[in-house]
TrEMBL record:
Name of the featured protein: Vacuolar protein sorting-associated protein 16 homolog
Any one GO molecular function term: actin binding
Domain Vps16 C-terminal: 509-759
Coiled-coil stretches: 635-662
Function: Plays a role in vesicle-mediated protein trafficking to lysosomal compartments including the endocytic membrane transport and autophagic pathways. Believed to act as a core component of the putative HOPS and CORVET endosomal tethering complexes.
Gene source species: Branchiostoma belcheri
Major localization class: membrane
Cited Gene3D superfamilies: Vps16, C-terminal region
Keywords: Coiled coil, Endosome, Lysosome, Membrane, Protein transport, Transport
């Protein structure tokens, strides 16, 4: 066990260890000459030359921002051609935030591609930014800037920036001695020190003076640091006193005299159990019980606070300083008699073929379940795969003596460690701990692999963890395809084929999304090729219209058989094209044309007439006029429509329809005249009903006149008059009519109507 505990350092009742996780791959980098920004959770590192330490040379040299993995492999670089950079930092989604002196914030991805920009407001632009803090808020990644007028402006979420001005500190006419952002209880506030006065500022314009429970006289708080979880605070004074307490300043845990009044280059929390100060060549770690550990460093370092420790970047190595977990202490602490330690020893003795293994097992027979759990948990806390294997082997050995042991925790830990070891690899460079992964979650880790374009590893992780395809492999392949279409140096046909070969029928993949990305990159032909693989027409058509391929969109919509989709394209074309071009376009597709005609019948009758006229379709034009005539309330408009219909029927050589329409016009005119004379309704009655009504009312001369006018056949007229007279009970007129001349229909109908109406 000596090799495991060799780097442990006691700090009060607990131990801390500093483990080297990488020998850095960057060359000739002296961190002393750079401004360093490292993302938490094993994220990337950004470097830019520190302009305060540059040697002046002739001409102008543009600065370069270098982006590396945590293992020191270069990912990308950005040749800076914008304003003066005040501060670099990372968002929680691993986007690089570059804060300029004029208050502009430029956002880049880890490959140095510009994504967006926003400003911190007019005052920041006019007064210039002199200092900046990037912090984690309840909404995401927050940003606070201090202007040269010593006012602080804050956004709680850089993805949706809403600028809030913090309260002004009275009488602040010089730079504050130190300040920090504390994000707690869904609210972000600024703790600012003006010499020995502390002020808590919020965005409601309120400030409150704070008193830290410090036992000694303080002239100025020169440095402060808040813990990763925002619960603890460390204050460093100009006398060298280090105060550690709660972030609300209610509780003091300890005061430690560093005997060094010089302000530390960096003050950062190591998890939540200790604070680390960095001075030239020295790291001083202080615990809440006034215990301390001193580390000597031989080069400039940069401290990166983490959830469970502190990452230390130097010119050559990347180390992780953290508290030794209690479960690891139980197993490996020298002289430990915990069940886990005994099981570990038993496993080692068993591998060496020693009978002592049996003695150790007998000693912990009744606590074997605890021993197995301790070994499993300890394996998760170890960074070295060899130590992990030894602990898991011990756990597996212990399980052999338990019949009712649940194998799930063991299997889950094996899977987790396999994933962690693969992403910790030097080529990937994400040195996550088990606790960090638990906080980050597996889907977010997969997203980060996708963000780094580590598609094969991301897919293998998903397959290994048996994640649903829609959440795992399909989503990653879609990201890969979207990246593939951005490769402008590769031929369109080659890219389309390789994407199709890779994706095939993978469930949950939308080719339209990939095509949209290709169109966004200006590769229209590639987008069209990709859309050929999209099985859903409803996904194809909108994108084709967006790209201006309207005729192809219309053809696809027609082929789909979806009338709603066809209407969508047709109406889009109608708005976009001139009437002539529009009609020429739909004429070539009968389905589209007939659907448009149907639309016009219901919505736009004038357009329908124009269409029939252009097509020389006189028959349908006439039918349309007849239909329209009966929707008119004014009689002159109705007659005009019918007369136009008659002309159209004549042109269509439909003599019967033309004749019928002409007679209808004559009948309407006759009915209008009757209404004027008799003051009774006759309009819209048929010829039969008109004659019948006139007869019933006793207007026999007018009925006779109408018969002659419209050449009603004798037989039909006699039948009609007999029934009308009987219905009107005009038996005298019926008698006269029977005797007027010989009946063309005989006399049986006279007898029938008399019997029908009970007149024997």
């Amino acid at each position: 066990m000596a090799h495991v505990t060799g780097d442990w350092n006691p700090l009060g009742q607990v131990f801390y260890r500093k483990q080297e996780i990488y020998t850095l791959g960057w060359r000739d980098i002296d961190l002393d000459k750079f401004v360093v920004a490292a993302a938490p959770y094993g994220g990337p590192v950004a470097l830019i030359r520190d302009e305060t330490k540059l040697v002046r040379v002739q001409g102008s040299i543009r600065p370069v921002i270098y982006i590396y993995t945590s293992s020191g492999r270069e990912i990308s670089s950005i040749r800076w051609n914008s304003g003066h950079v005040i501060h670099l930092g990372w968002s929680c989604s691993e986007e690089l935030l570059c804060v300029q002196e004029d208050g502009s914030v430029l956002v880049y991805d880890i490959f140095g591609q510009f994504k967006r920009t926003f400003s911190m407001g007019t005052e920041a632009k006019e007064m210039k930014v002199r200092d900046c803090r990037i912090f984690n808020s309840h909404q995401g990644t927050g940003l606070a800037v201090m202007t040269s007028s010593y006012r602080i402006f804050m956004v709680n979420n850089v993805d949706e920036p809403r600028i809030r001005r913090m309260a002004d500190v009275p009488g602040l006419d010089a730079p504050p001695s130190s300040w920090v952002v504390i994000s707690q209880d869904r609210q972000s506030r600024v703790l600012l020190a003006r010499e020995n006065d502390l002020y808590l500022l919020d965005h409601g314009g309120q400030y409150s003076r704070q008193l830290a429970p410090v036992s000694q006289q303080v002239e100025a708080y020169t440095e402060m640091a808040v813990s990763f979880n925002n619960k603890y605070l460390a204050l460093f004074t100009n006398t060298g006193l280090l105060w550690i307490g709660s972030s609300d300043l209610e509780r003091a845990y300890c005061e430690f005299d560093t005997k060094c009044p010089q302000r530390p280059k960096q003050l950062a929390w190591c998890g939540t159990g200790a604070i680390v100060g960095y001075w030239e060549n020295i790291l001083l770690m202080v615990g809440p019980g006034k215990d301390y550990v001193k580390y000597n460093v031989d080069s400039t370092v940069h401290l990166v606070p983490e959830l469970d420790g502190l990452r230390i970047l130097s010119n050559y190595s990347h180390e992780f300083l953290h508290k030794v977990p209690s479960v690891v202490e139980c197993v490996f602490k020298i002289g430990s008699i915990e069940p886990g330690a005994m099981l570990y020893e038993a496993s080692r003795e068993f591998q060496n073929g020693s009978p002592k293994a049996d003695e150790y097992i007998r000693m912990i027979q009744d606590r074997l379940t605890v021993a197995v759990d301790q070994c499993i948990q300890a394996a998760g806390c170890e960074h070295e795969p060899t130590t992990q294997r030894m602990l898991l082997r011990a756990a597996s050995f212990g399980k052999c003596f338990l019949s009712d042991m649940n194998p799930e925790p063991f299997v889950r830990m094996c899977r987790t460690l396999r994933v962690l070891n693969s992403v910790r690899d030097f080529t990937i460079g994400i040195p996550l701990s088990c606790a960090q992964l638990e906080q980050l979650s597996m889907p977010v880790l997969i997203d980060r692999l996708v963000l780094r374009r580590q598609y094969p590893l991301a897919i293998r992780v998903c397959q290994y963890l048996k994640m649903p395809e829609a959440e795992g492999v399909s989503r990653i392949l879609a990201h890969w395809a979207c990246y593939k279409v951005q490769q402008t140096h590769v031929d369109d046909e080659l890219i389309a084929r390789s994407i199709n070969e890779k994706l095939r029928d993978t469930p949950g993949i939308s080719y339209s999304e990939i095509a949209a990305k290709a169109a966004e990159c200006g590769r229209t032909e590639l987008a069209i090729r990709l859309l050929e693989y999209e099985p859903k027409s409803a996904e194809q058509v909108p994108l084709l219209m967006k790209m201006g391929r309207d005729q192809l969109a219309l053809a696809k919509a027609v082929d789909s058989g979806d009338t709603d989709l066809v209407y969508t394209v047709v109406m889009h074309l109608k708005e976009k094209l001139t009437l002539g071009d529009f009609l020429m376009t739909i004429r070539n597709l009968p389905t589209a044309q007939s659907l448009y005609l149907q639309y016009c019948k219901e919505q736009n009758r004038e357009m329908l007439q124009d269409l029939y006229y252009q097509e020389d379709n006189f028959q349908e034009s006439a039918n349309c006029r007849v239909m329209d005539s009966y929707n008119e309330t004014r009689m002159d408009e109705r007659l005009r429509n019918l007369q136009q219909a008659q002309e159209a029927y004549t042109k269509a050589r439909n003599e019967f329809a033309a004749k019928v329409t002409e007679e209808q016009v004559r009948l309407l005119k006759y009915q209008m005249r009757l209404e004027e004379e008799l003051k009774r309704p006759y309009l819209d009655l048929s010829l039969h009903d008109t004659i019948s009504q006139l007869t019933t009312e006793g207007n026999h001369k007018l009925a006779e006149q109408l018969r002659k006018e419209f050449k009603v056949p004798d037989k039909r007229f006699w039948w009609l008059k007999i029934q009308a007279l009987a219905e009107g009970s005009d038996w005298a007129e019926l008698d006269r009519f029977a005797k007027s001349k010989k009946s063309p229909i005989g006399y049986e109908p006279f007898i029938d109507v008399c019997l029908k109406h009970q007149n024997r």
